[in-house]
Write a structure and sequence with these properties.
Radius of gyration of chain A: 17 Å
Helix content of chain A: 25-40%
Largest interface: A-B, 33 and 29 residues
Distance between the termini of chain B: 32 Å
Number of strands of chain B: 20
Number of helices of chain A: 6
Helix content of chain B: 55-70%
Strand content of chain B: 5-15%
Strand order of the largest sheet of chain B: 3-4-9-6-8-7
Oligomer: heterodimer
């Protein structure tokens, strides 16, 4: 696999003067195409900020993010929107589904953005949502809603699937199911997955584990002994 | 692939149907009514304008004191100025010739008599006759026998012939000299030296009589009817019902008047003491409103009527004939400027031709200044622009409500928006999405509204017009203005107001939406509140949180209060006017005479003891430039009646000496904001003369725009003879003056007829309008209060979980709105009241006369109460809504 995502000397701080807080203090790593990469770290380690910068919804103070050779800092707002539209899929801890669209339509919201979307019906089947496709979000459990949210991101067939604590609000069993789904998508569709989590157990299912603390990369490991999501225990 | 977000719109409409139903209904009614108004008004205007062509509307008319002879009519038709100078010289020469001839005859007689007497005395002396008596007898005899012969002989002499010629020449020279001397002043007065482009006209006899009309044949006069001949070629009538009179006992009368006083086709009425069967209900093209006189403040379709009878029936009527002539230009003027130029040229021709043909102008009015044929049109046009402004204000309010709804939706959907933006949805896609709802709702309102406008509401407009004016029958036509003003403009208004708010709202970064960080400038700390009770502070927080809603609410409340002031104030003003009518009269009866002399040249007297002579003249006070109508005549400037009041008058007291100033009526002072000590300049209508007066006092008289002078000062100022006067003030009816000498009689009844007409035209409409305003205010408050509660659903649910009772929660969330509504209903009333006074004054400046805006205390209270009735209903709905918020709302939304 060749280098797909490059993070170079990335710095970011919030506030000013005494209240200034350096969240990223010079971060460097690369991710290969199709890799399942997990960003691990405790609260305040800067992982969500990093994910937002990679996603083009936040900007670094210094350094750059390069995807397939294109530097995000050189893009204007329109180009960034286009970049997100064409290359990224987002899954958040909260599902943020549109309440008055049903399951299928929520997934179509993602498909609409893509030039080569996956077949919505196929995605629904993959995610086990066929029986629920005409239900509205408020008729679904948290796990089902997160599946829809993953479907919405995956259906775009994005180059990178960004997952921000996707199991943060879910119970153990449902969390494993969701992780298995993301794993399946990664395998089936070959998307690069970047997942932010504070759950150490998830590292075992990743190809690439980057551990952050105090705004810098503490460990940058390639996992040689990958486990499947369903084998994880925590 | 179609954007799947579109599917949200119908679902949103369905899930919140009551909110959108109120908005759509609001728009449908607004747009429907306005569309109906435009369609009705365009259809009506089309009918009116068609009528101007097909019914041969005059270009103007004039009335002469006696029937014009053929030469005069030819002269006027030519449009040429008559040679007034030559006329004066001729007239002067004629008079001089008579005087010279008389003087010569007297002198010659004297000389011949003296010569005969001298001859007789010489002969008597020769015969020695000395008795003077005998001599005188001889002289008388000689004069009798030979005077004529001697006179003839004397006239044959060269000396006599030369003397006569010299005398005539001298007299003619004197006449020319005198005319020359006075010509400049006369020419300046009538602008006779200006060159004119002759406006050739075709003249039509259009005589009329004004007869008493007795509607129910009870012997009491109910109205004055102006009767024309049915075979007139000019200013014809269209028939709303029935036909033209064919027999001598048939009459067709104005449809509006007939409606007002309850005359139907087939009824018999008494006109001029003769019974007529009503066979037609008509609309005269030059009487779309029944203005008896062009200076009337308002038309009077109760007390005044127009009608037609056959020529034979006309000739059998007894009231004096008004020698009125209508004219049409041979080459019609194409522009308004040309129209004014033509009428100015024509007037010069009319004045000079009438003068040289020894006739007098009683009245002159170009059609474009004629209230009776233009008032309805300009009022119909004014109506629609006023109503469309109302429509735009309301749509603006709806647009703001929409903006608040959308703004709240955006707040509520912040995470979804953040996710969509993070996923690659562009800002413009989301703007379009959030814009769709207001645009679709407006479009829906506009389509349904327009359909109703063309099918239902246009009838309402036409009904209102028929209820007010004497209009011809009309047919519905397509109206471009309706489409633009009821669809395009509301859509644009809705579009831009919402676009502005939504674009501003969606400017935040996706991250801030994801973090719910939606306030641009967040205060470092919450505003500190005084140490009030917890509940009071809680309410205050709700008030601050919903400030934009309350601002829109206040705007809407001010607007509705303005409308309520109108709905209550207009009938009140009319009632007040009617009630005060007797105070608006100098005297119970005011008789205006045609002339102070009767046919035989005797001064018109009365035996009525309370009668007191007065003099008047009409002058013009220039209005400000903002007036709608411009040009000569009564339309452009305010007509001011200047009175010459008798010394020690028992009707009007002028305390100060008016040698150097005038008193003006309080109406004049109020309308033009003139105070004591100011200087006013009044202009003569048809002469180039101006009079400047200092205002030395203000007389409490709201009945008209008037100025007062002592009669001596009046006569001196206006060059009147001491014995001249214009009419009588009287406390009792004057019965001993022949009707033919009376031009008009003004009584308080005549004034109240005006208000009756207005009450009839708009009374019912005002009642409906008031109830509509309650619904309007309730809808507006409903929408805004709903937003406030929706926005706080979570908090309400949470305080319910905490154990607050529904009544306590109601007190928390309803009371702030109640305080705002009650407080601003009162404040807005005062704002609306002041605004209404201002608008009324501005409106008044467009027309002649004075009419003060008045609101009774009861109406003032009611206009606030009506608003609160609307609110009371809404607060009940709100309380029910609060009760229905489930407890789990707060538990479910844990984000």
């Amino acid at each position: 696999m060749k280098e797909f995502l490059e993070i170079k000397d990335l710095k970011k701080s919030f506030g000013s003067g005494e209240a200034r807080q350096d969240v990223l203090r010079g971060m460097n790593f690369t991710v290969k195409k199709g890799e399942f990469c997990v960003l691990l770290g405790p609260s305040g380690s800067g992982k969500s900020t990093l994910l937002n910068i990679i996603g083009g919804i936040d900007t670094p103070d210094e350094g750059y993010v390069s995807i397939n050779g294109d530097k995000l800092e050189e893009m204007n707002e329109k180009e960034l929107t286009l970049y997100r539209r064409k290359h990224l899929g987002y899954v958040f801890q909260m599902y943020n589904l549109i309440p008055n669209l049903n399951v299928k339509e929520n997934i179509e919201v993602g498909a609409y953005l893509s030039d080569n979307p996956l077949d919505v019906e196929e995605v629904l089947t993959t995610l086990g949502l066929q029986d629920h496709k005409y239900k509205y979000p408020n008729q679904l459990s948290g796990g089902q809603q997160q599946r829809v949210s993953i479907g919405r991101a995956v259906v775009k067939n994005p180059d990178i699937l960004m997952c921000d604590e996707p199991t943060g609000a879910l119970d153990y069993k449902t969390s494993k199911e969701i992780l298995a789904l993301i794993e399946d998508c990664n395998k089936k569709y070959g998307n690069t997955v970047i997942m932010v989590t504070h759950n150490e157990a998830i590292r075992n299912m990743a190809d690439h584990v980057i551990k952050l603390r105090d705004g810098v990369v503490r460990h940058n490991d390639i996992n040689e002994n990958k486990m499947t999501a369903m084998d994880l225990e925590w | 692939m179609r954007n799947p977000l579109i599917k949200r719109i119908p679902r949103e409409l369905k899930s919140d149907w009551h909110k959108y139903l109120v908005i759509i209904l609001f728009m449908v009614i607004m747009i429907g009514v306005i569309s109906g108004m435009y369609v009705g008004h365009d259809s009506m205007l089309a009918a009116v304008y068609d009528g101007r062509e097909s019914l041969n509307l005059e270009d103007g008319s004039f009335e002469l004191s006696k029937k014009a002879n053929a030469e005069l009519l030819d002269g006027i038709s030519s449009g040429e100025k008559a040679d007034v100078k030559a006329y004066y010289i001729n007239k002067g020469n004629k008079e001089a010739d008579e005087e010279v001839a008389k003087a010569i005859d007297e002198k010659l007689n004297e000389q011949v008599t003296e010569a005969i007497e001298a001859g007789v005395r010489t002969q008597c002396a020769a015969y020695g006759i000395t008795d003077e008596k005998t001599i005188q007898e001889q002289i008388d005899k000689a004069i009798e026998d030979s005077f004529d012969e001697a006179l003839e002989k004397a006239k044959e002499t060269e000396e006599y012939k030369k003397a006569v010629e010299d005398a005539y020449n001298e007299a003619h020279e004197e006449v020319i000299k005198k005319v020359d001397e006075e010509w400049d002043e006369v020419a300046e007065r009538y602008n006779l030296n200006d060159d004119i482009t002759p406006a050739t006209v075709r003249i039509y006899e259009h005589f009329y009589r004004e007869e008493a009309e007795d509607n129910n044949n009870d012997g009491v006069e109910d109205a004055t009817v102006r009767i024309y001949k049915s075979d007139s070629e000019i200013d014809k009538a269209s028939f709303n019902e029935g036909r033209a009179p064919e027999k001598d006992n048939e009459i067709a009368i104005d449809r509006m008047h007939a409606d007002n006083v309850g005359i139907k086709l087939g009824d018999t009425i008494t006109v001029g003491g003769k019974e007529f069967e009503v066979v037609g209900l008509i609309s005269y093209v030059n009487y779309l409103t029944l203005h008896a006189s062009n200076t009337d403040l308002m038309f009077d379709a109760f007390g005044f009527d127009v009608g037609m009878v056959t020529s034979e029936a006309f000739n059998r009527l007894r009231a004096r004939v008004h020698y009125s002539y209508a004219y049409k230009y041979v080459n019609a003027p194409q522009t308004k400027v040309e129209q004014a130029d033509y009428s100015e040229s024509f007037l010069k021709s009319l004045i000079t031709q009438t003068l040289v043909h020894d006739n007098e102008i009683e009245d002159y009015l170009p059609e474009y200044l004629r209230q009776a044929s233009n008032f309805a049109i300009s009022d119909i046009e004014g109506d629609s622009s006023a109503t469309s402004i109302l429509c735009y204000i309301l749509i603006g309010v709806i647009a703001l409500i929409f903006a608040i709804i959308i703004s709240n939706t955006i707040d509520k959907e912040a995470s979804v928006i953040g996710t969509l933006r993070a996923s690659g949805y562009s800002r413009s896609e989301l703007v379009v999405h959030y814009m769709s709802m207001p645009v679709i709702v407006t479009l829906l309102g506009a389509i349904i509204g327009n359909v109703l406008g063309y099918t239902v509401f246009n009838k309402l407009a036409v009904y209102l017009y028929y209820n007010s004016y004497s209009l011809p029958t009309c047919h519905v036509i397509w109206s471009d203005a309706a489409l633009v003003k009821t669809t395009i403009i509301p859509l644009l208004l809705m579009f831009f107001i919402n676009l502005f708010v939504i674009v501003k709202k969606l400017q935040l970064s996706p991250l801030r939406f994801l973090r719910h960080d939606l306030v641009k400038t967040r205060r470092a700390k919450a505003m500190r509140l005084p140490r009030w009770s917890f509940l009071r502070r809680f309410r205050l927080r709700i008030l601050f949180q919903n400030m934009p809603n309350y601002l829109v609410l206040i705007f809407g409340v001010v607007f509705i209060e303005l409308m309520l002031c109108f709905a209550f104030g207009l009938p009140d003003s009319l009632k007040h006017y009617a009630k005060e009518a007797h105070n608006m009269m100098f005297a119970d009866y005011q008789y205006m005479l045609m002339d102070y002399l009767d046919e035989d040249g005797n001064v018109i007297e009365t035996s009525e003891k309370s009668a007191e002579r007065f003099s008047t003249t009409e002058l013009l006070y220039p209005k400000k430039k903002s007036t709608m109508r411009t040009g000569m005549g009564s339309g452009g400037d305010e007509s001011v009646t200047v009175y010459g009041i008798a010394k020690d008058s028992s009707f009007i007291t002028l305390e100060k000496n008016t040698a150097h100033g005038v008193y003006i009526s309080s109406a004049f002072a109020k309308k033009f904001e003139i105070s004591e000590g100011d200087t006013i300049t009044l202009n003569a209508e048809y002469e180039n003369k101006s009079y400047t007066f200092d205002v030395i006092g203000i007389t409490d008289y709201d009945g008209g725009i008037a100025a007062f002078l002592n009669v001596e000062d009046f006569n001196e100022t206006f060059g009147k003879k001491a014995e001249e006067f214009s009419g009588y003030f009287s406390r009792n009816e004057i019965t001993d003056i022949d009707e033919q000498y009376i031009a008009t009689v003004i009584t308080s009844e005549a004034i109240t007829k005006v208000t009756n007409q207005l009450m009839h035209s708009m009374g019912k409409f005002m009642d409906v309008f008031k109830y509509a305003l309650i619904v309007l205010s309730a809808s507006l408050i409903y929408l805004l209060a709903k937003i406030i509660i929706e926005r706080n659903e979570n908090s309400i649910s949470m305080v319910k979980i905490l154990g607050f009772k529904n009544s306590e929660i109601g007190a928390l969330y309803i009371v702030p709105t109640a305080i705002v509504v009650v407080l601003f209903s009162i404040i807005s009333f005062f704002i609306g009241y002041r605004l209404m006074i201002w608008i009324f004054h501005a409106f008044l400046m467009q027309m002649d006369g004075y009419f003060a805006f008045f609101m009774s205390r009861e109406s003032m209270v009611m206009s606030v109460v009506y608003m609160l009735i609307g609110y009371a209903f809404v607060s009940l709905v709100d309380f029910r809504r609060i009760k229905r918020i489930p407890l789990d709302v707060a538990l479910k939304n844990i984000e």
